[in-house]
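Just wondering, can you check both lines?
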Amino acid sequence: MELSCKSEYALLALLELTAHYDEGEPLQIRQIAAQQNIPDRYLEQLLATLRRAGLVRSQRGAKGGYLLGREPWKITLLEVINCIEGLDSQPSEVMREPKSVEGMVVREIWQEAGRAADAVLQKYTLKDLAEKRDARRQLDIMYYI
């Protein structure tokens, strides 16, 4: 399993919104893009997808921008990945029927691996991601002293 660039950028953007969640002030696309080094146009498309899923909401006006749609501890990484990759309602069993016992065994193991990956992503929220980032930053600061 590989993390697509699209999903990584979405998670980075959401992590930036999580960092500013308590302030209650929306962030503009250019702010998020600059902070996380994401191309503006690409980020605009990702945020539109996330907005349609209710993971972010937009606010118009001079002080407009984007905010998280829900609390960061209520948005799982699995939900974000499924939204971005378009896996929401598609079961992973849409693959063709195996033609042999070997094919069936491979498929069963692949499905088990997918369920395990989903379980890990379901376990973590945006808040967990932010806490891990903050802990890592603290370790880096201590390392350079």
